Amino acid sequence: MKKFLIAGNWKMNKTRAEAVQFAEELKAKNLANAKDVCVLAPFTALADLGCALEGSGIGFGAQNVHFKESGAYTGEVSVPMLKDLGVDYCVIGHSERREYFAETDETVNLKLKALLEAGITPILCVGESLEVREEGTAQTFVAGQVVADFEGIGPADAAKIVIAYEPIWAIGTGKTATPEQAEEMCAFIRGVISGIYDMATGDSMLILYGGSMKPSNAKELLEKPDINGGLIGGASLKADDFAAIAEAAASLQ
Ligand code: PEP
Q1: Which of the two ends of the chain, N or C, has the fewest CB atoms closer than 10 A to its terminal CB?
Q2: Neighbours of 114 (CB within 10 A)
Q3: What whole-number distance in Å separates Cα of residue 128 and Cα of residue 143?
Q4: Residue 215: how many CA atoms within 13 Å on its side-chain side?
Q5: CA 135 → CA 83, 88, 95, 128, 138, distances in Å?
Q6: pLDDT per residue as tens digits for the range 38-74
Q7: Is the pTM of this model over 0.90?
Q8: In 3D, which of 195, 194, 189, 231 has the Cα closest to residue 214?
Q9: Which of 12, 13, 166 to mutate to test the pocket of ligand 1 (most atoms within 8 A of CB)?
Q10: CA of 143 to the centre of ligand 1 (A)
Q11: Rounded CA gap, 49 and 107, in Å?
């Protein structure tokens, strides 16, 4: 059976009360595949969200973390702090963090290692800009990100990472990659992972697509063989839309 993960990235949205309300609405849907679903919230909402989702099977996580355990890093949140909240997942290297907050493959790699050591599942984002796609070098660019981000990570740990392919030109733009474009790159990434490690690691890796996924296009994307789910921004803010995407994945299992 194909494995799926449907992950909602709220970005900088939702107060604690709004997060709890969403959790109640989502739980009321009695999702068939609750264990394959997670919500990635702002730090401020994580404690309340975790309590509201407890016992539902639905996972939760953060959208960033610092790679140092503690120290003089004003404004940052560490892996032990996330661990203390009981988070299951943490997004790393989202294109918005790479673009606006100077995230580099080097810091992404350090964050991946810190999360793996703590047993929190990283959701690693990679993806090319429109300029790179139009130049015809998207695969080379994405392969470069994957190779740099996985540097020094052994096969057992690598297998625990979830990769999200997010073409930057499709994030928040309403311009979804076609199922064929998304499948082509997810299959390519799987091949890169198989090349670095082995076929078994590549085959078992969860590779998500992200970029304007919504209820109306989720099924055609999710039914592609190398797409194991979605990282969903805008459409994860409403429980109805997010649940509809989760149900599209469940219908394919
Ligand atoms: C995202 O934030 O990772 C994302 C894919 O956003 P959207 O679904 O809004 O394009």
Answers
A1: N
A2: 22
A3: 10
A4: 10
A5: 42, 38, 19, 11, 8
A6: 999 999 999 999 999 999 999 999 999 999 999 999 9
A7: yes
A8: 231
A9: 166
A10: 21
A11: 27
- For 208-239, what is each residue's pLDDT tens digit? 999 999 999 999 999 999 999 999 999 999 99
Among the four given CATH numbers 3.40.720.10, 3.20.20.70, 2.60.120.260, 3.40.190.10, the one describing domain 5-250: 3.20.20.70
- Ligand 1 pocket, CB under 6 A: 9, 11, 166, 171-172, 210-213, 231-235
* 132: its two tokens: 């790179």
Mean pLDDT, the chain, whole residue set: 97
224: phi then psi, degrees, rounded to nearest 5: -70, 140
Can you tell me which atom of ligand 1 is nearest the CA of 210? Answer: 5
User: In the chain, what are the domain boundaries?
Assistant: 5-250
Cα 171 to ligand 1 centroid, rounded to whole Å:
5
Instruction: Please return the burial class of 141, using the count of CB atoms within 10 Å of its CB with bins 0-12, 13-18 and 19+.
Output: middle
Residue with tokens 């063989």: 225
Residue 195 has pLDDT above 90, yes or no: yes
95, 98, 106, 214, 231 from 101: Cα distances, Å: 9, 6, 14, 27, 20
